[in-house]
Amino acid sequence: MEIEIATIGGYEEVGRQMTAVRAGTDIVIFDMGLNLSKVLIHDNLRTEGMHSLDLIDMGAIPDDRIMSDLEGDVKAIVPTHGHLDHIGAISKLAHRYDAPVVASPFTIELVKGELADEQKFDSGNDLVKMDAGETMSIGDSGKVELEFVNVTHSIIDAINPVLHTPEGAIVYGLDKRMDHTPVIGDPIDMKRFREIGREGEGVLCYIEDCTNANKKGRTQSERVAREHLRDVLYSVEDYDGGIVATTFSSHIARVKSLVEFAKDIGRQPVLLGRSMEQYSGTAERMGFAEFPDDLGMFGHRNSVDRTFERIMNEGKEDYLPVVTGHQGEPRAMLTRMGRGETPYELDDGDKVVFSAGIIPEPTNEGQRYQAEKLLGMQGARIYSDIHVSGHLRQEGHYEMLDALQPQHVIPAHQNMKGFSGYVDLASNQGYKLGRDLHVTCNGNLIQLV
Ligand SMILES: [Zn+2]
């Protein structure tokens, strides 16, 4: 059976991930993501009403025109998890394919939200939920099967899809860290990865998330970030002014820890911002996270402002608002607080806790710098980087190669500079550039069989 891989997006950047695998005449697409920084760099750009081709020209979504060079039919579109760089282009591209979107239940809920916001295109694709540990047959040959393996990442319900073919398994390894003690959900299923590496024809190809491939050691567990956060919040328990926290609104485990520790130090947590309300509300409705009954979640600008007014009237010392804006996004809540545009007034000595790292990208770095300066000018004390990454570092990459023993590896989710650490590591493990280690860019076809 012929096996071909199309590296469509996310091979020159962290963002707009998209890869297609053709097994005979059956094609499966993994991820359809958005490069948010290409959108945010334009002030007030609303993508909901924009055409795909304009977004492709901006570099915001994958250029999927190479799909016409693949001879076969798309049988499934499989986003690995709900981050926008993996699902953010589904609303713009999926309607071109007569295939269902197959994903874990939480990811499907987030895809639904994306499709509901879309104004330009009507996507008729079926949305199919599949849990980690389950399989589905692909096409009519009876020879190709899709499996989801549970992984741990900075969003719940993340999986790595595996396409089983007569030539061996294709393991699509975006995005994960190796967490054996996650705060929500099951540990990464390394046992299954080791089995896949040894059963049948073994692993033909492994496509790997190289976000942190230039970093030594191993990525810490979410448990470590949780203890760090506990340490910081307990240390300001006696402070009688304002404490505000921010994190990734999609990072349900972190939001849950923030809510818990706010209660521990005698403050009422409240989630503010549209995306905070959406992600946490969805996770709670689906039973992934339990929040206290009296936890307020407010998304609309008006209800947020009313909440801020209530906090100012009743006393800042009784509340801990968890807000959006950890990357200093100009329109996010925390940045607006820094500019003095909300009813919440920061005083000298008030604490702002960033439970997030800065996404290493010049736009983010600049915006975050500006937000911290603005907050500092209001007198806020900044606690930054209370965070662990959701991506493997070098020792995790080594363990994955050891578990899967793939014949071919393709580094992804980075640019050329970002791939270098992975090329070193894989070369030391006996892979050879151009032979079985394929460093590539967007828009390439790699024929493996
Ligand atoms: Zn991710």
From TrEMBL:
It is found in: Cytoplasm. Its EC number is 3.1.-.-. One of its GO terms (molecular function) is zinc ion binding. The keyword Iron does not apply. One of its GO terms (cellular component) is cytoplasm. Pfam families: Lactamase_B, RNase_J_b_CASP. Binds 2 Zn(2+) ions per subunit. It is not clear if Zn(2+) or Mg(2+) is physiologically important. CDD domains: RNaseJ_MBL-fold (cd07714). Residues 15-228 form the Metallo-beta-lactamase domain. Zn(2+) 1 binds at H81, H83, H153, D175. Substrate binds at H387, V388, S389, G390, H391. GO terms for biological process: RNA catabolic process. Belongs to the metallo-beta-lactamase superfamily. RNA-metabolizing metallo-beta-lactamase-like family. Archaeal RNase J subfamily. An RNase that has 5'-3' exonuclease activity. May be involved in RNA degradation. PANTHER family: RIBONUCLEASE J. This is Ribonuclease J. It comes from Haloterrigena salifodinae. The gene is rnj.
